Amino acid sequence: MSGEILFLAGSPSPSSRSSAVARALGSRLEARGLRTGWYSIRDFDPADVMLARVQAPAVAHFVEAVRGASALVLSTPVYKATYAGALKAVVDLIPPDALVDKPTLGIGTSRLADHGGELAGAFRALFAFFRARSVGALVVLDDELTLGDGGVATFAAAAEERLTAVALALSLAVEEASPARAAG
C-alpha cells in the first residue's frame, strides 16, 4: 500500500459542504504525517462511468489508485436519505477485491439528523460488500458547518469533536494496516 488515503468527492459542486468536510479531515490527516490523494466525480466522463468503461484512462487511473491506497474516504451530500447516485456510479467501478481489509470512511452532510443515520447505514452496507474495515461515518449537519472564503469550513463544537475523533480513528486504522507495522 502506498500510505496514501484516497478521497472521492461525490458532489457535482466544486464548493460543496461535503467536500469542505473532507478537506478539513484531509488537513488533519496530513498534519499527522499521512499523505492524501483526491478525486471528484467531476474527474470522470459521465459516459465512461455510466457505461462502465473501466479501460477509460480516468477510470483506470482511479481504480489503480484505489488498489494502491491505504484507505478510502467517500464524501457526499445526502440525497434522498443516502449518498449521491453519481458517487455510487463511480464506486461501482471499483473491483470487489480492491478494498479488502482496507480502512474506509464515509462523510456526509445533511439538513436532517435522521438522514445522517440512514447515510451511516448505507455506508456500512457498502463497505461490508467490499469486505473493508469501516471506520464508520462522519455526518455533519448543515447547521453545524459554515463555509468561509475559499470554501474553508468552520464547525460547531460538536461537529469539530466528531471530526477530530474520526481523524484519529482513521489515522490509527491506517497505521495498524500498514505493512511496516505488520512486519514489526
What are the salient characteristics of this protein?
two-stranded antiparallel sheet, disordered C terminus, alpha/beta, 184 residues, five-stranded parallel β-sheet, single chain, Rossmann fold
Report the count of strand segments.
Answer: 7
Residue share in β-strands: 15-25%
Helix and strand element order: EHEHHEHEHEEEHH
Shape label: globular
CATH topology term: Rossmann fold
**Biggest sheet details:** 5 strands, parallel
What is the CATH superfamily classification? Flavodoxin domain
Rg for CA atoms: 15 Å
Number of domains: 1
How do the strands line up in the largest sheet?
A: 2-1-3-4-5
Outline:
45% of the residues lie in helices and 23% in strands. It is α/β, with parallel strands linked by helices. Strand 6 and strand 7 form a beta hairpin.
Description:
The protein has 184 residues and is of the alpha/beta class. 45% of the residues lie in helices and 23% in strands. The chain is built from seven helices and seven strands; from the N terminus they run βαβααβαβαβββαα. The chain has helices at residues 17-31, 46-50, 57-68, 85-91, 113-129, 157-177, 179-183; strands spanning 4-9, 35-40, 71-77, 103-110, 133-141, 145-147, 153-155. A five-stranded parallel beta sheet has the order 2-1-3-4-5, sandwiched between helices. A two-stranded antiparallel ribbon has the order 6-7.
Give the SSE map.
Blueprint: E1 4-9, H1 17-31, E2 35-40, H2 46-50, H3 57-68, E3 71-77, H4 85-91, E4 103-110, H5 113-129, E5 133-141, E6 145-147, E7 153-155, H6 157-177, H7 179-183
Parallel strand pairs: 1-2, 1-3, 3-4, 4-5
Antiparallel strand pairs: 6-7
